[in-house]
Amino acid sequence: MALEDDKRTRKLRSEAEDILRFRDYADADADWFWELDPNFRFAIVSMRHEGRSSVDEFDLLGKTPWEFADADPDRDHEWAAFVDKLQRREPFRHFRISLRHGGGGYVYWRLSGKPVLGHDGRFLGYRGVATDETVEAIRRQHQEVLSADYQVALETISEGVAYFDERNRLSFTNPAFRSLVPVPTTMFQVGTGFADLMNSIAPLISDDRRRASQLRRTPGRGLIDWQFGDGRCLTGEIRPLPSGRHIVVVHEAMGAAERKQEREGLYYDELAMSEQPFWVHVDGRIVFINQAAADIFDGEIDTILGRQVWDLIEPTERERLVQFDQDRRAGIEAPDSYLTTGLREDGEPVNLEFHVHVGEWEGRRAVQVFVQDRTAEQQARDALVESEQKYRNLINGSIQGMFVHRDWRILYANDTAAEIFGYSVDDFVGRNVMDLVAPDERAVMADIRRRRLAGDDDVPERYEFSGLCADGSKVAVEIFSRLVEWDGGMAIQATLMDITGRKATERNLLRAKEAAEHANRTKTEFLGNMSHELRTPLNAIIGFSQLIRDKIMGDINPNYVDYAGSIHASGLHLLDVVNDLLDVASIESGNLTLNEDDVEIADIIRSCERMLRARAQKAELLISVDVEAGPFQLRGDARRLKQILINLINNSIKFSRSGGHIVVKAFLNPDGAPVLSVKDSGIGISPEDQKVIFDAFTRVDSSFVTEREGTGLGLPLVNALTELHGGRVELESAVGVGTKISVILPQERLIRAGVD
After folding, report:
1. DSSP states along 343-393
2. Which of 49, 19, 9 is nearest to 33 (CA)?
3. Same domain for 381 and 249?
4. Which sign does the torsion angle of CA 725, 730, 735, 738 carry?
5. Interatomic CA distance for residues 481 and 417, integer angstroms
6. pLDDT of 113-166, one tens digit each?
């Protein structure tokens, strides 16, 4: 394999800095992750493996997996197949390796990975995850050692032991059982039924037929007292095990001399020299302990013999174990196997597993205890629990939601995922994922899942959807999903973010952008209109005044009167424009105040009609006035009320075609409030334009309108002056039909209403 340049390795390192990738790894069902460069050497190793395997990341960097594990692919066919798969750039799953670490022990890892290709198709190396299986491997080894030790112990003890499986078939007999029970050797074959063995024993029991008739044919707790024709007598018990299996334990009754001979014989010596820790206590006092058991407590046999067995137990555990012993004495069922905590000579605790048997020792009832030191295994379990707790804290404390589902059913979820949808974790787990998706988006979600399970490379890993909360409300969700292995099967892992706030912000920004663009367009249109409104009268003023100044038509000429009239009209128009601008500025700054007085509405309306009659006639329009009979007085600013009506009538004249009709009315509505209205038969206003017609500097977009002069300040001024009087403006309009604008003033401003 040719060495690649360092750029590809640096590319892998730069990719590792991508927060998305780290988040993916953090959510992965593994203990740590790694990356290999194109030469299959470790380029990146996560720190999550620390504390689990006693291997530092720098022990791996720069090495191939087989170099790190001290393996030779040329001699080991499993490693050869693994290297061949790497060279063919194929993904792999659950490749197991073992290696010795600095402490002298072994660690066991399970690796899974896939090749990484660049955008141009170049091979960049491998990326994957690893799971530490050291604890499980140690547990299996302990079980194998324990099984072997039990086998040795059972083969060497003088008591006969027969072991029956859950189907009550014989699985094992030790030599002592086969020598003590006088039945044909064929009955000791594996698979012999319990009832068959008992039936073969029954005829051999002599004289006492009562005993023979009570011999158990089915397993269950009971005592054994068999006397055979040759004079031998066997005692013992049938004992059920926690696993549902049974053992039969028998031994031959003997005298003191025989017991002494046994104590001094091979059986005693082998127990004393066995590597299986073992002790015997009578009435709570230790009468025998081998060196393997004494080593567990870092003590000597001579200093332990004669002591109370409870002295070897951690104080908080003593009451429980004493109760077990009392139950056994009283014939009450007590556990045969259990975990407890012992105390070494220096006071340090040690985790122990006891396997207890009650029998005879030198003619006395005794408790025999086989012991296993589980301290190292417990420490490994504690480290695993601590690591798992850290992982759970990381997941549960995340601001991101995370859940795993298989066949749409949620298997696991953190608090944040449940809270996003308004559930507790207990209510959330077990739910169907489709219940969390808005109905109109479920088909899309189902299609994405189908394509992902089918291995479609184009299926998106990150997308957004509308979620359905427990209370029926909706929540905007961004989701990242991927296939993972979970509890022995494939599942989908989803990472979630509640983006409801972000979506609202985006909508607000869009509205603000549209408002700013509208304001900018309005400003541009206003400047264009204003340039026209100001330039036209100024041109007339300048032009006609120049004619008069230069006496172009002579000293005295009738045309000068017309010119002076044009100058006067243009000046008045320019003054109106400037006044409107000043009024708008005053209203926006809050400086415009009303000069209130008692006002006769009929007088104001007729005054406005007279002022605008000539203009209406010129446009071939008819103006009608309709005021309720009798005095109609209001409290208000006469000048501003007149300004309101002039603007409304001017607009109607400006936007009505020849032959049209304008009606100005003053009346009381059903609520008793005074109303001033102007109705025309003009071009009308579209529903879209009605939304902005009262905004300053806004004009309706129409070819008919653009031919008319105007700044777009008339209706905004009407609205502002009406609000200063405490009233409101209502608009009714239809395109091609006409427009009616009503100024509704507060009832309190009415001094005296007219009478029909």
Report:
1. E-TTS-EEEEEEEEEEEEETTEEEEEEEEEE-HHHHHHHHHHHHHHHHHHH
2. 49
3. no
4. negative
5. 13
6. 999 888 888 899 998 888 877 777 777 777 777 777 777 777 778 789 999 998
Helices (H) and strands (E) in the chain, counts: 24, 28
Q: Given CA atoms 350, 354, 358, 363 in this order, what sign does their dihedral have?
A: negative
Q: What is the structure's pLDDT at 340? A: 92
Q: How many domains does the chain have?
A: 6
Give the position of tokens 């005044």: 545
Lowest-pLDDT range, 238-242, 290-294, 311-315, 632-636? 238-242
Matching residue, tokens 């004079």: 231
CA distance 615 to 612: 5
Q: Are residues 365 and 404 in the same domain?
A: no
CA–CA separation, 224 and 234 (whole Å): 7
Structure tokens at 457: 């490379």
Given a cut of 50, is residue 23 above it in pLDDT?
A: no
Answer whether 371's CB lies under 8 Å from 337's CB. no
Give me the pLDDT at residue 569, please.
Answer: 62
Q: Name the DSSP class of 193.
A: B
Neighbours of 375 (CB within 10 A): 16
> Is pLDDT above 80 for 754?
no
- 703 and 566 assigned to the same domain: no
Show Cβ contacts of residue 477 under 8 Å, excluding neighbours closer than 6 positions.
420, 464, 465, 466, 467, 496, 497, 498, 499
Question: 442 and 468 in contact (C-beta within 8 Å)?
Answer: no
Sheet containing 123-132, strands listed edge to edge, beginning at the edge strand earlier in sequence: 42-45, 32-36, 123-132, 106-117, 92-100
**Per-residue model confidence (pLDDT) at position 126:** 93
Q: Which residue range forms the structural domain that includes residue 549? A: 504-571
Least confident of 20-34, 284-298, 719-733: 20-34
Lowest mean pLDDT among 106-120, 424-438, 736-750: 106-120
Residues 598 and 725 in one domain: yes
Burial 504-534 (b: 16+ CB within 10 A, else e): eeeeeeeeeeeeeeeeeebeebbeebbeebe
Could you write out the DSSP letters of every residue in 296-316? HTT--HHHHTTSBGGGGB-HH
pTM of the model: 0.33
pLDDT above 80 for 267: no
pLDDT score of 579 more than 80: no
